[in-house]
Hints:
Chain A is an all-alpha fold. In chain A, 74% of the residues lie in helices and 0% in strands. In chain A, helix 2 runs parallel beside helix 6 (184-224) and helix 3 (68-100) packs antiparallel against helix 6.
Amino acid sequence: MKTRILGFVALAAVIGAAVNGLFVVPADLNQGDAQRIMYVHVASAWIAYASFGVTALAGLGYLIRRDLRLDALALAGAEVGVMFTAFAIWGGMMWGRPVWGVYWQWEDPRLTTTALLLALYIGYLLLRRLTDDPARRAARAAVVGLIAAVDIPIVHFSVLWWRGLHQGPTIGDPSKILNPSAPLQFVLALLAMLAAFTLVWAYLLIRRYQLARLEWQLEEDARRGLVQTARLALPGAAAAEEPAR
Amino acid sequence: MNGLRQGLAVAMAIARKDAISELRGRQAAGSTLFFAALVLLLFGFALGPDSRRLAEAAPGLLWLAIVFGGLLTMARLHQLEADDGAFEQLALYPVDRRAIYAGKALAGAAVMLVLGGLLLPIVAILYAIPIGTAWLPLLIAVALGAIGFAAIGTAYAGLTVRMRAREVMLPLLMLPVVAPLLLAAVKATAASLSGDPLGELGSWLQLLVAFDVIMLVVGAGTYGFLLED
């Protein structure tokens, strides 16, 4: 019930932030309406990074504590993160076409990093699907999640250098939107969107976690021969019956 | 101290065993080299006969060939053992898992260094680039690249070796992770070949060293979890 309320609050917040970003805040002088994409784009990129942080930490926690609930959390983080990453890339491309003239800008370190990020975690999710045993899957996924998390900063710096050593700064760098000269209204609109996205993120994370627990319960029951077909369970019911491991 | 010495001995023994079975095996090292050389040849067809364009692309093509050959090498180093059921026994040895990891990674790096070292003259001939004066930085770049690749490859091959669809999963998991390594190695190679006019060779080699160290630490720390399952 609490989760459902959170869901409605998140929905309302996103609608509010979207109306603000689309109609209340004026268009950017240079970029026009395209700049409005930045509110969702930057917010989803931040949320994506937070998701993968959750995945890495939960995975590390699993390797130490061997608690499958942490693995469910890691899965939730990765899946929600992949969604927000894809959304961020899509938004960036929609923004890049009118502002940069191209969908894909190789000289932008963030775009290249984010693309690799997406590849890393799609691999993570595929790996999970190809391993059946829950404990084995959790351990393998935790290792992949950790290596990916360690890799991300290296990717980012290497791409920064890659560009930096050869070319001057790219015109239209997304960070300029957040520089001190950006009107306060723009910054506030972005922060409002970020807050709304954080609520959505929390909601999705909780729901995916609950779902993962249910799936796991179902797998376990199927293994014991308790159920033949998928059965319906209420979201609250699974948390109560956690077999001790 | 004693534990460290024992760990080193274990690592060396495993590395020696893997390297010998790799180099003496009929199906293994030679065919990987041939495959990588073939990739280089096909790049020539893909990019057309313009020799200037080929020379410009040579560092990148060399490293793609090393990466493709390296993927095969990493998979095989674990596959041989898994096929014979020896992997479980390896996991049962009462030794530090980090030593097993170090041995496997060392063997992988050595085989890849040989592969890269042999591909260098092939690249020089096929794409008409002079490597004579730059052989030392080139070999350093190849060695650092081989270590980093083996550091991740060992962990991921250990992870995928008993999986379904492992042929797809190993490259799928590894390629995004080695992207910064590829980038730095290509840059270091290009800088070596052009005589390093911008003085950037050192930075790229440092990045490679950092990558190698980080991945070796993570790989050694997590490999035990993969043997367990």
